[in-house]
Structure formats: structure tokens, C-alpha cells
Specification:
Layout (H helix, E strand, L loop, with lengths): L1 E9 L5 H13 L5 E9 L6 H11 L3 E6 L5 H11 L4 E4 L11 H9 L4 E8 L5 H17 L13 E4 H9 L7 H8 L3 E7 L12 H15 L6 H25 L10 H37 L7 E5 L1 H12 L1
Parallel strand pairs: 1-2, 1-4, 2-3, 5-7
Antiparallel strand pairs: 3-8, 4-6, 5-6
The chain binds uridine-5'-diphosphate and magnesium ion.
Length: 328
């Protein structure tokens, strides 16, 4: 029987985890063709998540615990899960039931049909805030427009089903700044989408503050496309043309005696000068910031530093060893 490793990154999910297993157990009992195991990544939680995982580990025989040395973030936690998952297939899910466990049988069905990448697509995001829906929509449009091709499929996040071949290909990608939303589409292979309605979080709260969301968005852009780097050159060329033509027109008008330098409206000209200076400054700062983000990406990808460190891993088979140790 084929094994499916369900990877669940967890940061402060002490309340969500028991609810997850309460919801997934009735689903598991309906599955006959695949054996499911759960790879729980504790991403340096500050609450009792690790204790809850240890209890689950003792109570069940399908739990692997990967305890990270500290909190590194969702994507590095996923990297740890990808490295440790041994299954013939992998499903990535959040701990908070926003990715419905009822979809697991459908994903398995697609594996049986021969698909190697299964993308659950958020057909409805009613439960997300208006702000999150609007910014996510803008983000997808922006990223896919500037590159002139789809680099991030819309409304598909980390929730995925992947074959062993797809997982191995992703693990072999050399980048250190790893974002699974952009890396999974790189793999290609036989891919299918299935629609679902994104649920509200069952317990706890979202770990993505506004600041984290923006940083995340910029990092995803800089790791997947270099197109924004052309923006300063294009903006510079357009504004130089504009200023060149308008200055030429002013000089000609001045020579012809048709132009005065607004002597009757000193405040207007002062405000215009200030606004133009501000516009210029903000554009320059934005362009330096843009280059800074790409420098960040180069730095992260060239220094040989791992994106996470693991404290310990416990697999179901280690439990037998522990028990034998106690008996002897
Ligand atoms: N997560 C993590 N490390 C972090 C932040 C989040 O492992 O530093 C996990 C979190 O526990 C959850 C998943 O990543 O299982 C997605 O996080 P969250 O639900 O907060 O994101 P949202 O669904 O609000 O986008
Ligand atoms: Mg969530």
C-alpha cells in the first residue's frame, strides 16, 4: 500500500492540532488504498504545541515529530517537512482546518488517476477578510502581469498534493530562499486543480501580520522575477523625455516672449516645486528599496546558511525502540 505523508507546519497551534485530528480521523477511516502518516513540524512554538504533538505521538502510530530549533517561518518549516517526509506522496496542509480535510480523498483519487501535482484552488475565499482578498488579488495580477506568464497560479497556496518525484525535484532545487508557491509550479509534471471553499480558522489566529505579508510578497516577487528591476530605467527614461520636451517647449515659448515664470502666483510655483521634489525623492527611495530587495535575495541565496535547523525528529518506529529501552 502506498504511503502518503501529510506535512503540517505548526506555530502556536496548541488549540488547532487536537481539532485537526478530531476532523481527520473519520476521513482516514474511509481510506483503504493509501496509508496516511502525519509529519508535524513544530516551528519554535511559544505555547504548548510541542506537548500536544508529544501526546499525539504517544497516543497514535502515525505521527512523526520534527522539532525545529527555533521559529524560522512557514516556508523553512515546510522545507524541514519535505526533507523528513518518506511517503510515496506528500500532502501539505495548514493545522487550522482552513484547508479542509474532506479534500484529502479527492487528492488521493487524483494520485490514483496518475496526477503528480494536485493544486487545491480556493474557488471561494468568503471567510478571508476583504483586505486580504483584495491585496491577494492585486498581488496575483501584478506578479503574473509583469512576467507576461503565470508564475504563481491564482488562489493556490501551500495546500498541495505531490508525488515523490515532484517532492524530490523540489528538494533538489538549490535556492536557499525557498517559497513553495513559486517552486511547485517550476516542477511541471502532470498537474490538476480541484476547487474548494476556503474555511475560517478553527482556533488560534493567523501568524501573518500586515508587515509579514508585505515582506513575504516582496520576497516572493524578487525570487521569481527580475522584471521589476527594469522599472527604474523605464521610469527614468519616460520622465527624462517628459522633462526634456517640456523644458524645450518652455525655452521656445520664453524666447518667443510667450512665457512668464508665474510671477503673479508665487505660492503655486512653490507648491509645484515642492511636490515635484517629493515625487522625485519618493521615486528615488522606492528604486533604491527595489534594488535593496534584490540584494537581499542575492545575499540569502549565495551564503551557505541553511534556512532552518532541526532539534530532533521522532518517527513511529522510534517509539518501539523507546519502549524496548524501558523494558530492558
Ligand atoms: N506557520 C509556521 N510558522 C510560522 C507561521 C505559520 O509553521 O512562522 C504555520 C501555521 O501554524 C499554519 C500555517 O503555517 O499551520 C499557515 O499559517 P497561518 O494559518 O497563520 O496563515 P494564513 O492561513 O492566515 O495565511
Ligand atoms: Mg491559516
Amino acid at each position: 500500500m502506498k504511503t502518503v505523508s501529510v506535512i503540517i507546519p505548526c506555530y502556536n497551534e496548541e488549540e488547532a492540532l487536537p481539532l485537526y485530528f478530531k476532523a481527520v480521523d473519520p476521513i482516514i477511516s474511509q481510506i483503504n488504498d493509501y496509508h496516511l502518516e502525519f509529519v508535524l513540524i513544530n516551528d519554535g512554538s511559544k505555547d504548548k504545541t510541542l506537548e500536544v504533538m508529544e501526546q499525539l505521538y504517544q497516543a497514535r502510530n502515525d505521527i512523526t515529530i520534527v522539532n525545529e530549533a527555533k521559529n524560522y517561518g512557514q516556508n523553512p518549516a515546510l522545507t524541514a517537512g519535505f526533507e523528513q517526509a518518506k511517503g510515496d506522496y506528500v500532502i501539505i496542509m495548514d493545522a487550522d482546518l482552513q484547508d479542509p480535510v474532506e479534500l484529502i480523498p479527492q487528492i488521493l483519487e487524483k494520485f490514483t488517476e496518475g496526477y503528480e501535482v494536485v493544486n487545491p484552488h480556493r474557488a471561494s475565499r468568503k471567510e478571508d477578510s476583504f483586505f486580504k482578498r483584495a491585496t491577494a488579488g492585486l498581488f496575483y495580477k501584478f506578479v503574473n502581469k509583469i512576467e507576461h506568464r503565470k508564475i504563481i497560479p491564482e488562489n493556490i497556496n501551500c495546500f498541495r498534493g505531490l508525488s515523490r518525484r515532484a517532492v524530490d525535484s523540489i528538494n533538489a532545487l538549490p535556492e536557499k530562499d525557498r517559497f513553495y508557491v513559486t517552486m511547485v509550479p517550476l516542477v511541471g509534471l502532470k498537474t490538476v486543480s480541484i476547487d474548494f471553499a476556503r474555511q475560517a480558522r478553527d482556533a488560534g489566529e493567523s501568524k501573518y501580520t500586515l508587515d509579514k505579508l508585505f515582506t513575504h510578497a516582496f520576497n516572493i516577487i524578487s525570487t521569481s522575477t527580475t522584471r521589476p528591476l527594469y522599472f527604474p530605467i523605464k521610469a527614468g527614461a519616460i520622465s527624462s523625455c517628459f522633462f526634456f520636451v517640456s523644458s524645450l517647449a518652455l525655452i521656445v515659448l520664453y524666447i518667443l516672449g510667450q512665457c512668464r515664470v508665474m510671477p503673479d502666483y508665487p505660492q503655486v510655483s512653490l507648491w509645484m516645486a515642492i511636490s515635484l521634489a517629493f515625487l522625485g525623492f519618493s521615486l528615488i527611495i522606492a528604486c533604491i528599496g527595489l534594488v535593496g530587495i534584490y540584494l537581499h535575495t542575492i545575499l540569502i541565496n549565495t551564503r551557505e546558511r541553511p534556512d532552518h535547523l532541526i532539534d530532533y525528529v521522532k518517527r513511529p518506529e522510534d517509539k518501539k525502540d523507546e519502549n524496548n529501552g524501558k523494558e530492558s
